[in-house]
Amino acid sequence: MPARATAFLILQLAAFPALGQNPDATLPAGVVTLSRAPVPVTVTSTGQAAAVLEAGIRPLVDGVVTEVLYEPGRDVAKGDPLFHIDDATYAAALQSAEADLEGARAALPAAEAAANRAERLAGTGVTQADLDTARVNLLQARAAISVAEAAVSTAQINLDRTTIRSPVNGVPGVPAVSVGDLVTSGQSDALTTVVSLDPIYVDVSESSARILDFRRRFATGDIQPGERLGVSLILENGEQYSGTGTVQTISSTVSTTTGTRSTRFRFDNPDRMILPGMFVTAEVTLGTSQGVLVPQLAATPQPDGTIAVWTVDGEGRSAQTMVTPAGTTRNAWIVTSGIEDGTKLIVDNIDTMTAGRMIEAQDVSITAEGIVTGN
Question: What is the pTM of this model?
Answer without folding.
Answer: 0.64
